[in-house]
Design goal:
The protein has a single domain (about 45-190), classed as tt1808, chain A, CATH 3.90.1570.10. About 25% of the residues lie in helices and about 30% in strands. The chain contains four helices and ten strands. The protein has helices at about 15-20, 45-60, 115-130, 185-190; strands at about 30-35, 35-40, 65-70, 85-90, 105-110, 135-140, 145-150, 160-170, 175, 185. Strand 6 and strand 7 form a beta hairpin. The longest helix is centred in the first third of the chain and has 17 residues, at about 45-60. The protein starts with 12 loop residues before the first helix and ends with a helix.
Length: about 190
Amino acid sequence: MGQAPLTLRRWTRVEYERLVDLGVFDGDPVELIAGQLMVAEPQNSPHATAVGAADDALRAALPPGFIVRAQMPMAVDADSVPEPDLAVVPGCRTDYRRAHPTSATLVIEVADSSLEFDRREKGSLYARAQVAEYWIINLVDRVLEVHRDPARDLAAPHGGGYRSVSAVASPAVVTPIALPSARIRVSDLIP
């Protein structure tokens, strides 16, 4: 007799948030991505340093009316609650006391061992959620990958993709499209 095929249990955002409220994950770094629970990889020192440096650079450059959320949930759809390394959202902290944001002005992931996952899976998910701009701080190649212009892409894992993708290196300066007054040096993002 052959082994029976495995069945994956898909989770909804409502079920996931209930598990979080019940303390099931007990502080484990878990995200809900397209109905699947994903355990985040532990952060090595370069990753943690880059998250902190990018957080500092963003906070210094943002105009009033925007905040940076570091490693906090975004409720992007009915079956996904990613926790990007950084997300720039409009408003103030108390605007999100009852519910996580459903989108962001800018989402940033810091990637070393997760580079392909961040490009393919998370990039498709953020594009499907219409996040206008997605940056990957690529620690492998020491560049900033700038993803813009989200669109429907049925060939992508989650049905979305970015039509514009470029790699930017130091000493360049980047300006988020939704925040034209914010100028950020790539060298401040990749320590």
